[in-house]
Amino acid sequence: MLLKRLVAGAAIALGLSAAAEAGQTLDGVKSRGMLNCGVNVGVAGFSLPDSQGVWRGMDADLCRGVAAAVLGDPNKVRFVPLTAVQRFTALQSGEIDVLIRQTTLTMSRDTSLGLRMVAVNLYDGHGFMVRKDAGVTEPKGMDGMTICLSPGTTNELVTTDWFRANNLRFTPLLQERMQDNATALQAGRCDAIGTDATQLAALRSQFTTPANFVILPERFSKEPYGPVVRRDDQEWFDVVRWTLSAIIQAEELGVSSANLEAMKGSPNPEIRRLLGVDPVLGNALKLDPAWAHNTIKAIGNYGELFERHLGPKTPIGLERGLNRLWTEGGLMYSWPMR
């Protein structure tokens, strides 16, 4: 049912906007002087307006990183908050230029929606958060529970599949906004929330009494998050892919927002290409030679980005785990930039 709804939305939306024509997105962003970036309606650590209305979080900063690469200014972003149901139609129709919104990269999404999954910026997995007083220590103890889920997500499917495979019952409470699910759990309208582990940690960090809720340790799926663009624009796909790769390579090379200017004097050819001393990478993307330099200056390298929004010193308090660099036992790995 979910896939049918998405495909139907794709068939309608693909004809709605000339902005989706091949090769037009980069030129459109430049001429407009503004990046339209789709983000979550509000999840701490990913995209959430602060008290001044400024969007904060990992996804919000990745939007700023793309704006810095293309326009030279990380502030030239229009953030478009989208629910899970709205997100793909907004991209298909041309309302946004790129979707950076906790979106799992899956085969069906990559092949049936007229969209293209770009690259992984976060490795995650589906889990459950339950009320501590329920006394549940493992998912098999959740038989008969009411579980808050967001429609149009892989989490809805993963939960249904897992309960069916284990011959267990549950009652879904479907709400588009994850914040509504968080409110329902705290109010006792559902017994658990099913979503990706990082989102569970982000939601719990904002609860009035976080200690009253437990995130079960088991993970039931692979949930690689990444930006999404329209399929018919390879040029723009390249810009978004290599901007993400640039901040990963920066961490691999020891380049950070703090030492950026000093590192421009390095004799290392990889660093010189990355920072635009050698303009070959910018030329390949039709961007300013300083495109990656501008991104790293604006948002830091990948490690800085993770630690600032999700790391152990934040209220969310996550270890990097699979999101460590490959040289440290993780999966984060930039493609060779040469």
UniProtKB/TrEMBL annotation:
| Record domain Solute-binding protein family 3/N-terminal: where | 34-263
Any coiled-coil regions, as ranges: none
Keywords on record = Signal, Transport
One GO biological-process annotation of the entry reads: amino acid transport
Q: Report the InterPro entries cross-referenced here.
A: Bact_solute-bind_prot3, Solute-binding_3/MltF_N
Do you know which Gene3D superfamilies this protein is assigned to?
Periplasmic binding protein-like II
Q: According to the UniProt entry, where is the signal peptide?
A: 1-22
The family note in this entry says:
Belongs to the bacterial solute-binding protein 3 family.
Name of the featured protein: Amino acid ABC transporter substrate-binding protein, PAAT family
